[in-house]
Q: What sequence folds into this?
C-alpha cells in the first residue's frame, strides 16, 4: 500500500500512462499536472478537455483546469465544490493509484466519467446508475452489499427502485418495514437491528426459515436499515441544498 511519504509516486504513474489514453502532460509542478485530453466519443467526435490533476497521494483528484465544458459545481453531475470530479465511492471502489495497473484503470474510469458528462450535457440526465449524494452514498453501498448477500432478486429490486423502507410503530416498538412495490416483505426492529419474525421463510427461495438460512437474517436486517438511512440522508442532503444556485444543465 502506498503512503504519502513520496508524493511524486502517484504523479509519476499517472504521467507514465497518459499517452496511452491520448492525453498529453502540458506542465507539471511536483505532484500537480496540467493535461490536455482529446476525448473520443462513440460517434467519432473528439472533445477537448484541459485537466488539473492533483496526485499528491494514492487518491488522485482531478478537475477541469478552467470551467470550459463542465459546471463549476453540480451534484447531479457528480462535480463537487471547487470543481473536483466525483468518479467513485471511496468505500466501494477506492480507485487508489499505487502501480501501473491501477494508474491505467484510473485513466479508464476518468474517460468513462467524461463520456457520461457529455451524455448528461446533451440529455439533461445522468446516464445509468450513480452513487447517492453526500453521506447517503455510504448507506447505499451498505444496502447494496446486504442485497448482494441475499441474492440476485434483491440486487435487481434494489437497483430498479422497487424496494422501499417504511418506518412503523407498534405499541412502543419502532420498526423498519421492507416493502416491494408497496407489499410488506418483513419488519426489522430498529433498536435490536434484527428481523422481527425469524421463523418466517427466507425470501431467497431456499425453503428454510430465515433464522436457519446462513447469514440471510443479518443481511435482511441490514438491507432494511441501510435503505432507510440512505433515503433519510438523501433527503437531508437536498434540504441543505435549498436556495443554492443551480447550474441549470440537468432536467431534475
A:
Amino acid at each position: 500500500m502506498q503512503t504519502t511519504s513520496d508524493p511524486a509516486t502517484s504523479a509519476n504513474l499517472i504521467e507514465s500512462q497518459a499517452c496511452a489514453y491520448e492525453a498529453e502532460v502540458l506542465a507539471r509542478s511536483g505532484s500537480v499536472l496540467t493535461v490536455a485530453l482529446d476525448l473520443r466519443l462513440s460517434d467519432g467526435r473528439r472533445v477537448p478537455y484541459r485537466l488539473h490533476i492533483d496526485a499528491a497521494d494514492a487518491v488522485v483528484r482531478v478537475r477541469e483546469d478552467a470551467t470550459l465544458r463542465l459546471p463549476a459545481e453540480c451534484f447531479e453531475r457528480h462535480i463537487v465544490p471547487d470543481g473536483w470530479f466525483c468518479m467513485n465511492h471511496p468505500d466501494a471502489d477506492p480507485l487508489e493509484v499505487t502501480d501501473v495497473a491501477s494508474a491505467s484503470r484510473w485513466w479508464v474510469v476518468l474517460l468513462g466519467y467524461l463520456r457520461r458528462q457529455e451524455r448528461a450535457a446533451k440529455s439533461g440526465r445522468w446516464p445509468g446508475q450513480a452513487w447517492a449524494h453526500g453521506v447517503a452514498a455510504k448507506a447505499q453501498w451498505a444496502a447494496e452489499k446486504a442485497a448482494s448477500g441475499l441474492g440476485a432478486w434483491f440486487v435487481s429490486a434494489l437497483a430498479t427502485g422497487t424496494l422501499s423502507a417504511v418506518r412503523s410503530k407498534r405499541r412502543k416498538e419502532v420498526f423498519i418495514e421492507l416493502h416491494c412495490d408497496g407489499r410488506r416483505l418483513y419488519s426489522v426492529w430498529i433498536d435490536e437491528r434484527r428481523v422481527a419474525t425469524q421463523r418466517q421463510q427466507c425470501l431467497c427461495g431456499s425453503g428454510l426459515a430465515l433464522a436457519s438460512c446462513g447469514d440471510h437474517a443479518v443481511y435482511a436486517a441490514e438491507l432494511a436499515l441501510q435503505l432507510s438511512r440512505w433515503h433519510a440522508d438523501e433527503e437531508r442532503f437536498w434540504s441543505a441544498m435549498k436556495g443554492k444556485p443551480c447550474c441549470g444543465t440537468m432536467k431534475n
In short: The helical segments are 8-18, 100-123, 136-150, 152-159, 216-241.
